[in-house]
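Human: Here is a favour to ask of a fellow structure person. Comparing notes only helps if you start from a blank page. Give me a protein, with the fold worked out from its sequence. Please set it down just below, with no commentary around it:

Assistant:
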Amino acid sequence: MNNLFVYCEIEDGIVADVSLELLTKGRSLANQLGCKLEAIAIGNSLSDIEKQVMPYGVDVLHLFEGEGLSPYTSLPHTSILVKLFQEEKPQICLMGATVIGRDLGPRVSSKLKSGLTADCTALEIGNHEDKKACVTYENLLYQIRPAFGGNIIATIINPEQRPQMATVREGVMKKQIVSPDYKGAVKKHEVSAYVPDTDFVVKVIERHVQKAKHNLKGASIVIAGGYGVGSRENFNMLYNLAKVLNGEVGASRAAVDAGFADHDRQIGQTGITVRPKLYIACGVSGQIQHIAGMQESSIIISINNDPNAPINTIADYVINGTVEEVVPKMIKYYKQNSK
């Protein structure tokens, strides 16, 4: 009762990275609250799920296994979560801000009248004093996310309704194993007790999944281009640099909107969140919307002809100059010294 729950997304028997990231964060938050961390796995052929999630500190794993639960469809997953939460009364529920999470989260929160904060970039535990009502709420979930077009960072709380629900984008949190031998309890539920037959009215007859053209999220080196790169042709320099460094190419929203790069390479609040070992920002101004998607990078290098560009304030190293001047020299240097 009143524990912290994480909904785990599963594709072909593999738990999504965003779910493992949320289990890591959930474990930390549960420790602060003195409660248990519980995970929910819904699908078919879930025999290996326990081995995947338990090392992240899961105290209880709720398993719902049966035909019609995978691939994901809205109705049965919603029914399961709504009834499970009515029974278990969790204080917090976390989901990935993915295609599934953005469909499932609002459905569940609407049924439970609990509210939901989408696309959080940070989660914390804290108190809130309502001076008007002379009431102090303790151990609330601070749901932190950019707001008003990314111009401010808003902290959202839900003092009254439960569960406190939030979705978090992939890559925002770190995933970290607590112990390979962590032992939690497994509860196998009867699906028919949670899902009416009418929820299976939609059947997936044929499914086509297009694989990503790149591995931007998992790249250890990212070369990102902004509007300052100047053109789609100039982006070829970034691809050449990425090839030399075995990295991937990303882009700011301004560069994508200008047609310099494809949308699936967009980094930032409305794109992908990355946390590489090395991030090279080329002609990126550094608006807060972009910084939200890359500020956790280990080392940041800024190449910019504007010494006052906002990106320079968070960069570890700043190279003043145009992309056309600097990037070809970097390519030449790395080619000479990588033999």
